[in-house]
Every structure is written in C-alpha cells, then in structure tokens.
C-alpha cells in the first residue's frame, strides 16, 4: 500500500469538516469593511473614517489553561480566552478591535473540538464588534500527541494618533481604579494545576473545572464607555506577573502606583489556592491578577464619574512620587 498524507497522520477531510462547521458563524462577525471571505490566501479589511489612524496589534494564547479544558472536555470557553487575551491588551492604548485571526495546532484534528474552540472566538468577536477574518488549523502528528491542542490568536485594532493612551499623561494625585476579573483569566495555570490536580473535585457546590474555566472577561464595552466620557491617563491589563509586573509598564520615571491591597476583592478560588498550596501572598500577587483584571488611571476629579459609569469598579490607590513604580501595601 502506498503512503498517503492520511497514513502519515494528517486527515485533510477533517480539516474541511471544521471549516464547514464554522464558516456560517464566522461570516456573522463580518461587516462591510471585510472585503473577502474564508478560503483566500489573505484576509482583506478596509479602513475608513479616520483622520490619522494608528493600528495597534496584540497576540497571545491561553497557556496551560488549555489542559484544564481538554481534560474536562469543555472547549467553548477557551476560544473566548484566546480572543480576550489579545483584545484586552490593545484596549490598554484606547484601540477599538477591528479584526482577529486564530491559530489552532493539534496532534490529530477532531472537527467537533476545533469547531467548539473557534465558535467561542466567534461569540467573543461579536461581543466586541470585531471580525474574525481568518486563521490556520495545523495538524502536526509527532509534534503534538492525539488529543493535544494549542491555541493562539492575533488581534488588530485602531485608534486616532492623538487619542493614543500610553501612560505618558499619568501624574501624582491620579486615582487607580480596578475593574474586577472573572477569575484566573488565562495566567498562572501551571501553578493552578499543581495545587488543584483534580479538576473534578467539588468547589462551592460544583465541579472545580467550572470555576477554573470561567472565560477571561472582555473589557471592550467598559473601557470605551469610560474613554468616551473621561480623559484616561493610563490603562493596564493585569495578566502574567500580576499587578507587580503589569502596572509598572504604564508608569513613568519618578512616579509610583501606591496601592492598598486590603481594598482588593480577591476571589474565593484564589484564597483557596493560596491556603491549600501554602503560597505566600506576595507570590500570589506576582503570579495572578488577584481579582483585578484591568486598572484605569484617571485624574482625581474624574474618579467618581468612572465609578458611576462602571457598576463593579472600585478605587485601589493613587499615583505618588517615587522611584519604585509600584508600592503594594498589604
């Protein structure tokens, strides 16, 4: 019998099935700016209506949270995570997401699983007025084991040049406002899985994996609601490295983000991990978002308006003079 691509472990027909299952849903994310459809070598997106547009791009994956999803056979939320990790990053500069592309790699393609993952991305794109205009599915036997998947994404947004938010306008006296996370989001799962090896155990009346797989919160609507009403000096997406690593990325020299950690509303699952794993509080704050998914920095006179615009936001500190860039007081 002669060798074929299928005998080497790659089933092209399963790839075609995947496209068939997602094509209609993906098309529902398109708008008049999308000039072609799935199947072309490149995706076309027309830009109009801007005076001096700047494209802002971001790429990310979901890390080993994917392992929790695969072991629990729950795949749809991972697509939301992938989109959110990319789109939330570009929001930090005031950009509106325009389009998204995904990359899905596996050892042996299952069109049902692949479609569930992508359909999660579709729902997230719809929620953010963003078009899913292309992607790549790679079946790679020998590189990945059967049942293994990896997911990554790439998002492009747009902002007027004179409206870019980069932290350069942050000054002493500005207030730091927290937007709550929906949980661990997509960071720190190597430690999560070490402390919680059994995803089926019960936590607060339901299987633990349900809590662990709550998708990363999408902040597009909240952030742009604020931007439209208030001049925002800085925005930080709290991902890997927690507050310690992400807030300093927007703080200029000679300034310090002084934060009162006692004001932070830490999710119960994180407190349980801290206790069960014997993890030091500083290590927790240096690994996880600890309940803060994003922060916005605004002039003190605008703080109350921001809190009024965002029902669940709350103040956690202010900008002071200093050389450390962040001072987290426990």
Automatic annotation (TrEMBL):
<dbReference type="InterPro" id="IPR004733">
    <property type="entry name" value="PurM_cligase"/>
</dbReference>
<feature type="domain" description="PurM-like C-terminal">
    <location>
        <begin position="171"/>
        <end position="324"/>
    </location>
</feature>
<dbReference type="InterPro" id="IPR036676">
    <property type="entry name" value="PurM-like_C_sf"/>
</dbReference>
<keyword id="KW-0658">Purine biosynthesis</keyword>
<dbReference type="InterPro" id="IPR036921">
    <property type="entry name" value="PurM-like_N_sf"/>
</dbReference>
<dbReference type="InterPro" id="IPR016188">
    <property type="entry name" value="PurM-like_N"/>
</dbReference>
<keyword id="KW-0963">Cytoplasm</keyword>
<comment type="similarity">
    <text>Belongs to the AIR synthase family.</text>
</comment>
<keyword id="KW-0067">ATP-binding</keyword>
<dbReference type="InterPro" id="IPR010918">
    <property type="entry name" value="PurM-like_C_dom"/>
</dbReference>
<dbReference type="Pfam" id="PF00586">
    <property type="entry name" value="AIRS"/>
</dbReference>
<keyword id="KW-0547">Nucleotide-binding</keyword>
<keyword id="KW-0436">Ligase</keyword>
<dbReference type="Pfam" id="PF02769">
    <property type="entry name" value="AIRS_C"/>
</dbReference>
<comment type="pathway">
    <text>Purine metabolism; IMP biosynthesis via de novo pathway; 5-amino-1-(5-phospho-D-ribosyl)imidazole from N(2)-formyl-N(1)-(5-phospho-D-ribosyl)glycinamide: step 2/2.</text>
</comment>
<protein>
    <recommendedName>
        <fullName>Phosphoribosylformylglycinamidine cyclo-ligase</fullName>
        <ecNumber>6.3.3.1</ecNumber>
    </recommendedName>
</protein>
<feature type="domain" description="PurM-like N-terminal">
    <location>
        <begin position="54"/>
        <end position="159"/>
    </location>
</feature>
């Amino acid at each position: 019998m002669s060798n074929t691509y299928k005998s080497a472990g790659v089933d092209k027909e399963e790839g075609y099935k995947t496209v068939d299952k997602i094509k209609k849903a993906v098309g529902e994310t398109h708008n008049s700016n999308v000039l072609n459809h799935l199947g072309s070598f490149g995706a076309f997106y027309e830009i109009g209506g801007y005076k001096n547009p700047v494209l802002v791009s971001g790429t990310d994956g979901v890390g080993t949270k994917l392992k929790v999803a695969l072991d629990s056979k729950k795949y749809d939320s991972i697509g939301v995570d992938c989109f959110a990790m990319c789109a939330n990053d570009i929001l930090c500069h005031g950009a509106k997401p325009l389009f998204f592309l995904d990359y899905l790699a596996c050892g042996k393609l299952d069109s049902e699983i692949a479609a569930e993952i992508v359909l999660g991305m579709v729902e997230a794109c719809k929620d953010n007025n963003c078009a899913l205009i292309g992607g790549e599915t790679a079946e790679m036997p020998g590189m990945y084991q059967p049942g293994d998947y990896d997911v990554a994404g790439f998002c492009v947004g747009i902002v007027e040049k004179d409206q870019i938010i980069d932290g350069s306008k942050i000054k002493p006296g500005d207030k730091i406002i927290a937007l709550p996370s929906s949980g661990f989001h997509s960071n720190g799962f190597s430690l999560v899985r070490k402390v919680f090896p059994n995803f089926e155990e019960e936590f607060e009346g339901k299987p633990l994996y349900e809590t662990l797989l709550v998708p990363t919160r999408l902040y597009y609507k909240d952030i742009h609601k604020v931007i439209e009403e208030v001049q925002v000096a800085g925005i930080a997406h709290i991902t890997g490295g927690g507050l310690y690593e992400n807030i300093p990325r927007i703080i200029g020299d000679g300034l310090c983000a002084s934060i009162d950690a006692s004001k932070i509303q830490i999710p119960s699952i994180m407190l349980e991990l801290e206790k069960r794993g014997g993890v030091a509080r500083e290590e927790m704050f240096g690994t996880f978002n600890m309940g803060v998914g994003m922060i916005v920095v605004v002039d003190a006179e605008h703080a109350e308006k921001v809190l009024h615009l965002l029902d669940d936001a709350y103040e956690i500190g202010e900008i002071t003079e200093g050389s450390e860039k962040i001072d987290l007081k426990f």
